[in-house]
UniProtKB/TrEMBL annotation:
Superkingdom classification of source: Bacteria
Cofactor: Fe cation
UniProt keyword Oxidoreductase present: yes
Natural source organism: Mesorhizobium denitrificans
Protein name according to UniProt: Aromatic ring-hydroxylating dioxygenase subunit alpha
CDD domains in UniProt: Rieske_RO_Alpha_N
PANTHER family referenced in this protein's UniProt entry, alphabetically: CHOLINE MONOOXYGENASE, CHLOROPLASTIC
Database matches in SUPFAM superfamilies: Bet v1-like (SSF55961), ISP domain (SSF50022)
Keyword Flavoprotein on entry: no
GO molecular function terms listed in the Swiss-Prot or TrEMBL record: 2 iron, 2 sulfur cluster binding; dioxygenase activity; iron ion binding
Length: 380
């Protein structure tokens, strides 16, 4: 072949897919349907077992407008109760976390056990006056998977989380995800419909031009092939690193002690990328060899969505010795702010009555339409 000739590129498939029509992003009526059809039927990340190590430990978690009490009932059981007394509806607690033997409503002192059962209603004895068995706290479903706590607002989900995800893969177990602790939590409110933020995360077509910090270690080209396999309610896998890189950081080098059994390796393993995703309201779990990042989406209204990012390191890592929090978090803190600007600008355009969705890039935006199709199936 002549040295001046270049190999021919593979043919580009015809771009035929689009995002959804405008009303799906701006209609309050559609958002109300989503609460019932989507938000109350899917699994989402709520917290980590390190937040409730002891029986009676609890923390509050909010999703889709619902306040939930995540509590450790026993060494084996974690429960999620709606923070609503069965008497007149008062919230049982405003404290973000704590340890209790009973949940006592501050209004009329109705008392509930850790399993949610009603134990006492003053001046209203069981059987004689009311049936305690019928007045347990309303509960959501809760499952612990690899040390992470997930909830489903439905008390009887169509699928358990283990049925959806399967057992944790060996690569994730080597990282010992149960033995990590939180070092920082950021919450951003993005002024846009939650599906605008979802679509932004499902593709990296925009990454090269918008995320210089992420692009240092993240393999943008490989992500196109990876995201093309996404769809349905969940997927396994982390985000690919460039060849020869150790972790997502501003240099690609370690920013904390290696996690789990990786600390025992004679040679540090490169390009470790484990994790999972839950859809369509996105939870994204990312594990690298030295730290973890978990992103969680919480729709607030038709035109606002909360984006929470939590960073974790090995539970025995010492700040100032083994890691600096600013170094661990700087890539995704910058990326999140960039995405907030991109999504809010995008949503302002979608609000225009002239908006008609254009064709999606068949390679770089391959996950967008399959995930939207899953959303539409849930919406029936």
């Amino acid at each position: 072949m002549n040295n001046m000739e270049r190999p021919k590129r593979a043919p580009v498939p015809r771009a035929t897919d689009t995002t959804l029509t405008r009303e799906y992003y701006v209609s309050p009526e559609i958002f109300e349907r989503e609460i019932e059809k989507v938000f109350f039927k899917q699994w989402t990340f709520a917290g980590h077992v390190s937040q409730i190590p002891n029986v009676g430990d609890y923390f509050l978690h909010t999703f889709a407008g619902e306040s939930l009490i995540i509590v450790r009932e026993s060494a084996e059981i974690v429960r999620a109760h709606h923070n609503v007394c069965r008497h007149r509806g008062s919230q049982l607690t405003k404290a973000e976390s704590g340890n209790v033997k009973l949940f006592v409503c501050p209004y009329h002192q109705w008392s509930y056990a850790l399993d949610g059962g009603l134990k006492r209603a003053p001046m209203m004895p069981d059987v004689e006056c009311i049936d305690y068995d019928k007045l347990a706290l309303k509960s959501a479903s809760a499952e612990v998977w690899a040390g992470m706590i997930f909830i489903n607002l439905s008390p009887k989900p169509e699928q358990t989380l283990v049925e959806a995800l399967g057992e944790p893969p060996a690569g994730l177990l080597k990282l010992e995800p149960e033995n990590i602790r939180e070092i920082r939590r950021d919450q951003l409110v993005v002024r846009g419909n939650w599906k605008t933020l979802l679509e932004n995360y499902l593709e990296c077509y925009h990454c090269a031009g918008s995320h210089p910090e992420l692009g240092i270690a993240f393999d943008i080209q490989s992500s196109f092939d990876q995201t093309a396999t996404w769809g349905g309610a969940c997927f396994l896998g982390g985000e690919p690193l460039r060849k020869g890189f150790v972790t997502v950081s501003m240099t690609g080098d370690l920013v904390s002690k290696p996690l789990g059994r990786h600390a025992e390796d004679a040679n540090l393993q490169l390009e470790v990328a484990e994790g999972l995703g839950l859809l369509p309201v996105l939870t994204r779990v990312l594990f690298h060899v030295d730290h973890a990042i978990i992103h969680v989406m919480n729709p607030l209204s038709v035109n606002e969505v909360q984006w929470t990012t939590i960073w974790y390191v090995r539970k025995d890592a010492v700040e100032g010795v083994d890691y600096e929090a600013d170094r661990v978090t700087e890539v995704w803190r910058a990326t999140n702010l960039e995405d907030k600007e991109l999504c809010e600008r995008n949503y302002k355009g979608v609000l225009s009555r002239t908006f008609v969705p254009g064709p999606l890039n068949p390679r770089a935006e391959g996950a967008v339409r399959p995930v939207l199709n899953h959303y539409l199936e849930m919406m029936e």
